[in-house]
Structure formats: C-alpha cells, structure tokens
Amino acid sequence: LDLFAAVRAAMVGDTFINSKVVGRVFSSWGNQEAATPLIRMSLGRSEQFEMDGAGDGSETDISVHVFTTEDAPIVCRQIASKVRDVLQDADLTLTGSHTFDFQFRDIIQLTDADSPSLQMAVVRFRAQTTTK
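^ thats the sequence. predicted structure below, dont judge the formating
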C-alpha cells in the first residue's frame, strides 16, 4: 500500500501525466466506468528476503496499466513513455521502508479486438525496498 501510494504520487505529481489522466490513477479495478485516459496499478510477484545486517528487504513487480481511447495508440504510448521517465530510478518516499532500486523493465502495447478504439499499454517495473 505504501509503495502504491508513492508510485501514484509520483505520477499525479507530473504535469504531463496529470494533464492527461486528471487524477484518474487507481490501485483497484472497481472503477470500471471511469473516463479515459486512466491508469491502473497492479502488483505481480512479491518476494521477501533478509539483507545482511540491513534488515528485511522485498522485491516487488509493479505494473502500470495505461488505457486510452483518445487518438490512440499515440496518446497511449506518450503517457506510457512518460510513466517510464517519471518512475525509472525514482527515489520514492515511503513511510515504513526505503526504496533502494526501482527499475523499468518494459512497455507492452496491447489492443482489444472487442473494442478497437481502446488502447492499452503496460509499463512494468521491479521495486526493491528495505525496512528503515
């Protein structure tokens, strides 16, 4: 939750991203009727580990899903690229832990055969944190 809040704050704090999504950055899939463009975040694999004398650590896969219908796929790719730029190696402020590595993995562009005007991009990251 703390990591999601920090990632969301970084994206909403960026002028370009926020001008496109107007605060529509969600960590749940319950807002199905929200206007596009919008961003939804999800967690993939999360693994805990002990760091030699430095407390507990974790490695978490985070996916940022960008959805657009406006001038897609160009706008979708622009937002996804800006998400990458903003979050790549970001020094995120967390309450109970510290981010020591936040790496961009890739961007996957998708389309929906049932809704051709809907464009999707998944921007994937791996976050490594340690307890403070």
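Residues 70 and 102 are 30 Å apart (CA to CA).
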